[in-house]
């Protein structure tokens, strides 16, 4: 009995003696387990580890991962004193490891940054990790509204639209009393992962009332004052009849002239071909070099490229001037004179705006993250070309600038050019291709390009493979056009950002 009690005493003494060593086990603790931040803003997620290693440079290794149901993506790591970030996070993440902290700072947050993150810390004293959840939301801040006539006489359709995340319900209110069920609400996803919600109701245009659409998640709203906001129309029935007669007469006249012109072209085809050949032989005629012959609808047609280029240039400048006010609103207080000071590459070095322009026959890919100002640059280039050349950005060496918004293309390249730039319907794809490829003074600007529309992608690749002297500038987010870069005459790739500008 005495021996047994002696051994019990020994065990108790050993436990007391070694108890302090058990308290120094290596642990990692999360500062908080759930974070929420807003789209485009910054978040700092932290975990604290103890004890701290005696030599952090060699004995400390920190790794942050983003975990999804289908992947385990490394974000950033510290190893042997060197910090390295994964390519898809470069420029947006920093690792802070001071005083026992391992903090991940993420800026310019995207919707797909939401998820679970793991903070793994490894030292000579042991390894441990903690999981942290991040939720990125985008408030429905700006609500746009639109009014149009309904099919039913005397009614109008009121439309509200806004972008945000996650999805919000929309409630319509009539006056200050009752709600009104929307007749149509749709949700689509933008390239940035935001949700674009469009909602409509149909109301009487003669009943005086206020109609308000409320995006319930964030409380953003817009109010229609009916009938005050309905676009005014002429109530003079006689004037409407006269205008209708004039329109019909004009359509008939144009049809007759077009028919006669077609008959005339077929009758003089041989003469046109002969005249063109004479021009090409006669070295004294300066316009001969710009006349080419194409096959259009099984008939030889002679196109004077110089004349068509000049006509198209005048039409485009007039077209661009019509939405110059919208361009100024989009760019805000940001002017072309500020562009040289704001334009920077990913190394923070200034970029000459003229360096963005391709050389004749060259394709340039201008890459930047969402919100870095690619569309702003495109608008400034269009505005600078359409108006008198400014001292800071002179594009007078370009005879044509064709800008195509690629964010929602539905047709091939030439149809999109005709539709977006309001060109005459009879303008053929062959005529456009001829004007684009014949001169080195033409710039084709494709803004916000992203692979995915088969017709547009195929027609663009075919054009780039035989673009002649055309200059091509394509703005895109990183990773949005890998196939095009590999297979369709890729040239320079510029990565840039606009200092102090977010769009």
From TrEMBL:
Residues 20-135, 139-223 form the Ig-like domain. It is found in: Cell membrane. One of its GO terms (cellular component) is external side of plasma membrane. Residues 1-23 form the signal peptide. The keyword Signal applies. Residues 362-451 form the NACHT domain. GO terms for biological process: cell surface receptor signaling pathway; cellular response to lipopolysaccharide; immune response; negative regulation of T cell proliferation; positive regulation of T cell proliferation; T cell costimulation. The chain crosses the membrane at residues 238-259. Keywords: Cell membrane, Disulfide bond, Glycoprotein, Immunoglobulin domain, Membrane, Receptor, Signal, Transmembrane, Transmembrane helix. Its main location: membrane. It is a single-pass type I membrane protein. This is Uncharacterized LOC110958732. It comes from Acanthochromis polyacanthus (spiny chromis). The lineage of its organism: Eukaryota, Metazoa, Chordata, Craniata, Vertebrata.
